Amino acid sequence: MACYTKVEKETCIACGTCGAIAPEVFEYDDSGFSQSVLDNNKGVQAVPEEVAEDVEEAYEGCPSGSIKLNDTPFKPKTPVSS
């Protein structure tokens, strides 16, 4: 079954766990926070089957709960109107 992932940068503590476990999927952005390199952290491209287990392990090991997993693509955030 396909899974999708992204990182909530607002809560990421840049500990390096995800990049150590699944370097094919997670790396740091220019600000030093983790992101999914599959789709520029949008969570709309399925995680390749060969690294899905690593992504799940990174999700479970993320101390801040910043890695998100879903069985369907994430919906884009809608801007809040004032």
CATH class: Alpha Beta
Structural class, by secondary structure, is alpha+beta
Low-confidence stretches: none
Work out the oligomeric state of the chains in this entry.
single chain
Biggest sheet features = 2 strands, antiparallel
How many separate helices?
Answer: 2
**CATH architecture identity:** 2-Layer Sandwich
- N- to C-terminal separation? 39 Å
Order of helices and strands: EHEEHE
Backbone CA Rg: 12 Å
* Helix residue percentage: 10-25%
Mean pLDDT: 94
Keywords:
82 residues; alpha+beta; Alpha-Beta Plaits; two-stranded antiparallel ribbon; two-stranded antiparallel sheet; 18% helix
Q: Mind explaining what this structure looks like?
A:
With 82 residues, this protein is α+β, with helices and mostly antiparallel strands. The protein has a single domain, classed as 2-Layer Sandwich (Alpha-Beta Plaits). It is 18% helix and 17% strand. The chain is built from two helices and four strands. The chain has helices spanning 17-21, 52-61, and strands spanning 4-7, 26-28, 34-36, 67-70. It has a two-stranded antiparallel ribbon with strand order 1-4. Strand 2 (26-28) and strand 3 (34-36) form a beta hairpin. The longest helix is centred in the C-terminal third of the chain and has 10 residues, at 52-61. The chain is globular and about 40 Å long. The protein starts with a strand and ends in a 12-residue tail after the last strand. The model has no long low-confidence stretch (mean pLDDT 94).
